[in-house]
Each structure stands twice: as C-alpha cells, then as structure tokens.
Automatic annotation (TrEMBL):
Protein name listed in UniProt: Pilus assembly protein
NCBIfam families: RrgB_K2N_iso_D2
Region (Disordered): 437-457
Organism: Enterococcus faecium (Streptococcus faecium)
Regions annotated as coiled coil: none
Taxonomy of the source species: Bacteria, Bacillati, Bacillota, Bacilli, Lactobacillales
Length: 500
C-alpha cells in the first residue's frame, strides 16, 4: 500500500462508533464490537491497495503441534477491492451515508474511498477473535513454524475452520455472501454441518469454488439464515457452527481465500471444527491427609483418602465452537470407604461448584458433579482450564474383610464418556490368633463341645499361643513382591511366664 495508518486499542479500552472517517483520521477510541473486550486490537487503514499489497500478522507462540510450541502468522495478499468494480449503491448495503460521510467513493476521507483505493482492517490481538474487513477478496496464508524456524508439516490430523460466514446483504447477483476457499479443496476433504446455512458458489474474482453464505440474488433467505444472523452468530452459541466450513489440512503453510461484498465483514479462522470435540483424558489421583500418593499403598481402618478427578476442558474458538451442553464428573466409591464430603476446584478457586451441583447418592455410593446450565454458559471459561471433583472419604471396617479396593472415575462431556485411570489401595490381612494345649483349642478353656466351658487351667499348665499372618500376593492384594517391614508381636499377660 502507498500509505498505512496503524494504531492499537488496548484490551478493555475504547468503544464502538460508526464514525469510519474518524477511524481513517486516527480516532484511537474506536473498537469493533465483535472482538472480545479482553483482547486488544490493531486497526489498519490502507491506501493505494493493489493485488501486490501484503499484510503480515504475527500472533507469536500461541499454539502447539505434536507437543511442540509453534509460532503462528497470517499473511494477507492478492487483495481485490470490490469498490474497484461495483458501484457504491450496491456496496452501501443499506448503510446510511453518514456512516461514510457522503459517497464513500468520492469522499477522500471515506473508509472505502475509491479514489484513494482505501480499505480498513480491524485485527484482534487474538487469532480466534478474528479480523474485520470491508467488501474485499484476499488470500490468507497460515504460516506455522516451530521455535527453530522450521515449518510445521500438518499431517492430515488438522482441520482449519472459517466461521461466521453470513449471506449477502443485498439482492443483486453481483453481491456475494461471506465465503472461504482452500486451494486444495478439490482434492481434500472439507465439511459443513447437516443444518448448515452455507452453500457453494463462485467467488467474485478468479471464479473460484467457494463455500459461504448465500450470494445476492438467491431465493429469499430462509428462517434458518435469519436466525443464524440474528441469534446464533456468536462464538459459543450451540448453532454457531451453522456458518462454519472446516478444511482438512495435509501440508505446510496452507493458503485460503476469503471474500465478501458485505460492508463490515467479520471472519474468524480457528483450529476448531464442526465435529464433536473429543476432550482430554480425565485423570484420577488419591492422597492421604499429608498429601502423599496412596495409589498402590497400604492403608488401614480409619485412614483418610482424598480422591480427585481432574478434567481439562477445550478452548472456545481454538478447538471448540460451542459451549458444552453437559459436563459431569462421577465417582462410584469402593465399599471399603465412607463418604465424608465433596466439592469442585478450578485453579485458585477452591469452591467452584454452586449449590446442588455436587451430590452424593447413598444407595449407589456415588458422588457426582453435574454442571448447571448457567455454569456451562457463563461460569466456565473454556480456556483450557482444569476442573477437579475433590472427594474426602474414610476407610471403614470392611477393609478388614477385603485386602484391596479399586476406584475409577468417569467424565461425561456432551455425549463423550471417558473413564479415568484406576487408583488401587491395599489393606493388611487380619492376623489370626489361637491358644492350644496338647493340640487342642483351649480358647475359653474349651476342650469339650463348642461353647462348653471347662475348668480353668491350673498353675504350671502349659499353653501355646499361635499367631498366623497370611502373606499378600503381588498384583492381587499388594503392589510389591516384598514388605518394607514385617513383624509379629504378642504381649504376654503378667500371670504367664514366657517359655520359648
């Protein structure tokens, strides 16, 4: 471009205004409303735009691929301005002239001044919060590199989605809805939802096959189109994916084309897909009162255990387009422990759950956290955070009858159910003590029929006490093939004399 105006609006600063000329003139208090306020944005005013104009947007290290950090850039190029071709009365799209201070073509301060070959870009600091442009078609290249500068070769397990693709705002057949194209879309898979409001048509420039909102001149927009535009075109809405197309990527630096004849077009690019996102595997841990791991350890009656079920959530706009409609953490407790209490934690919030979300079913011996609708919609951040169901229990007398207790939790997100790892604790086998005389059981001095007492032992009589401790078996009722410590003790009454 021959001239560039650039300025930044910090997070939670500025406000939306329709004064586009003020934007051109450098009003630094203008914010596009669809960008989440917690993100800053950079506003670019470009003059002398040609197909050779290029805009590089560096978002920094904002993601990972195969466990490695990656740097993300977007390169905007091959920019075509609809104002070069279409008359103003089509592009005005029912906006009053005051939006652009009279004719946007002739007014040299107009945001879409034809004489100045001017356009405006509103670029959020957050990739997934999107970019706004005016009546333009351009290439968008996604450049992902590792920390050493080498390119990320996507291997077919990655989907790039273009969201919020709205229909054209006018009836002229020259107008196009907001659309997206992938230069490999004729040879690779791409997807839309069954209830999509998108269609296939040709781009305004270059006659490309594109997917987007209905073009101008289409049959009257359906109720689904109107509902999407007015009700659901918001990140996190359950039907936001109706305006999304997802492309399967199997290369480095993929190139896309976006375009729209609409004035003020918001588009978002993300790695979120229209599919049901598979959540991370939930994790189960168990600790004693001192915070020590109890898995594969030996406990006894009266000991306390704190079970924790951890579930990391997806990131809205990154790998998730809509908030969850169900989020549950469930623990069926072993019978060898008694329930004490439970709550949910998230980060520094040690009491995230609200009344009624955590319940204990005594009959099932089951603890459940079921997030309420308000929690799913408004309280969960969906920024990759972790939620933990924390359950305090106490080992009961049944541990004396059983030598092992296994515990596994479950998480349910939407329709996806996953089990945690298993926490195993062991209990010592109860030793058996006998007292015999001449090979007969004399417990209670009973050498006759069972339950029939006889005369007490006389002074000088000898008896034999026998204490039997059954050994544990590795993998069955113990984690190790040997004990760290083993002893048998038997205190002798004062009236008895130890012999051997």
């Amino acid at each position: 471009a021959s001239k560039v105006y650039k300025y930044h609006v910090d997070a939670n600063k500025g406000g939306f205004t329709d004064d586009y000329v003020g934007l051109v003139e450098g009003n630094k208090n203008i914010r596009y409303p669809s960008f989440q306020k917690e993100y800053g944005e950079t506003n670019l005013v470009l003059e002398g735009v040609t197909t050779n104009t290029k805009v590089n947007i560096d978002y920094g290290k904002i993601g990972t691929y195969n466990g490695k950090k990656v740097n993300i850039k977007l390169v905007l190029s091959n920019i075509h301005l609809y104002s070069d071709t279409l008359p103003w009365n089509l592009l005005d799209n029912n906006y009053t002239k005051t939006h652009f201070r009279d004719d946007g073509y002739k007014n040299t301060n107009g945001a879409m001044s034809k004489s100045k070959k001017r356009t405006v870009l509103w670029i959020s600091d957050n990739l997934f919060s999107g970019i706004v442009y005016h009546s333009t078609q351009m290439n968008v290249q996604l450049v992902a590199t590792y920390e050493d500068g080498s390119p990320v070769q996507f291997s077919g397990d990655t989907f790039i989605s273009f969201n919020s693709l709205n229909p054209a705002g006018g009836k002229s057949t020259d107008l196009k809805g907001e659309y997206a194209h992938y230069d490999k879309m004729n040879t690779t898979d791409w997807y839309v939802r069954k209830d999509t409001v998108l269609s296939e048509f040709k781009s305004f420039y270059n006659n490309l096959n594109v997917v987007g909102g209905h073009p101008g001149g289409s049959s009257k927009l359906t109720q689904a189109d109107n509902d999407f535009n007015n009700l659901h075109d918001k990140l996190g809405d359950p039907k936001f994916g109706q305006g999304t197309v997802s492309f399967k990527i199997s290369e480095a630096n993929p190139t896309f084309v976006i375009g729209s004849s609409n004035v003020q077009t918001w588009f978002t690019l993300s790695s979120a897909t229209i599919f049901s996102v598979v959540p991370d595997q939930p994790e189960k841990t168990g600790v004693d009162k001192n915070g020590n791991n109890v898995n594969d350890k030996m406990l006894q009656v009266g000991d306390t255990i704190q079970y924790r079920i951890k579930q990391k959530v997806n990131r809205l706009g990154v790998d998730l387009l809509a908030v969850y409609d169900r989020f549950e953490l469930i623990d069926n407790l072993p019978k060898e422990v008694n329930y004490v209490d439970a709550h949910v934690e998230s980060g520094t919030n040690k009491k995230f759950d609200v009344s009624g979300e955590v319940t204990y079913d005594k009959t099932k011996h089951q603890v459940k956290y079921a997030a309420k609708a308000d929690t799913l919609k408004n309280r969960m951040k969906y920024n990759g955070e972790t939620y933990e169901l924390v359950i305090n229990v106490k080992v009961n007398e049944l541990a004396n009858q059983n030598s092992v207790a296994k515990n596994q939790g479950t998480s349910i997100i939407n329709k996806v159910e996953k089990d945690t790892n298993i926490i195993t604790v062991y209990f010592p086998k109860i030793p058996v003590k006998e007292v015999q005389q001449n090979g007969k059981d004399v417990n209670g001095r009973n050498d006759g029929k069972k339950g029939t007492p006889t005369a007490p032992l006389n002074a000088g009589s000898e008896v034999q006490y026998l204490v039997t401790q059954k050994w544990h078996t590795k993998g069955v009722d113990a984690a190790s093939d040997h004990y760290k410590q083993f002893s048998i003790q038997d205190p002798i009454e004062a009236r008895l004399t130890y012999k051997e």
